[in-house]
Amino acid sequence: MIREEVFMKEQGFQDEFDDIDDIATHILYFVDESPVGTCRFFDGEEPGDAHIGRMAVLKAYRGKNLGAEIMLAAEKAIQEQGYKICSLSAQVQAKGFYEKLGYVQEGEEYLDEHCPHILMRKTF
User: Domain named N-acetyltransferase: which ranges (predicted)?
Assistant: First the structure.
């Protein structure tokens, strides 16, 4: 529901759900027993790399540091599973958010559907 609201309805993405949902670990953030934020992670392209994706917070709950809390929860779970690197495909408009969490851009911008993205990584 969160991803549909944020990515499809707000941002206009079409290809939101995929087979990775079946194998990924999902993080769900609740406020007063209601889900308001989420992300998922799965094996990245390189050994020891976990890839975080589909990080989203419902509009009414943004600006309250929940996105950072979701990312920290995902990173904790990732480290507990023995991963040493975390990668993500960030929307360019969210680059600063991820930089504050220690992620560094790698490579050039690319389009995912209609939206500019960049690859970012963090080593633990």
Answer: 1-124
Residue 66 burial by Cβ neighbours in a 10 Å radius (0-12, 13-18, 19+): middle
Quote the pLDDT of residue 114: 87
Tokens linked to 12? 């206009």
pLDDT tens-digit series, residues 98-109? 999 999 999 999
Band the pLDDT of 121: cuts 50, 70, 90. very high
Q: How far apart are CA 99 and CA 64, in angstroms?
A: 18
Query: Is the distance from CB of 61 to CB of 7 less than 8 angstroms?
Result: no
Q: Whole domain around residue 84: which residue ranges?
A: 2-123
Single pTM value for the model: 0.92
Q: Which of 60, 55, 58 is nearest to 101 (CA)?
A: 55
CATH code at 23?
Answer: 3.40.630.30
Q: Domain count of the chain? A: 1
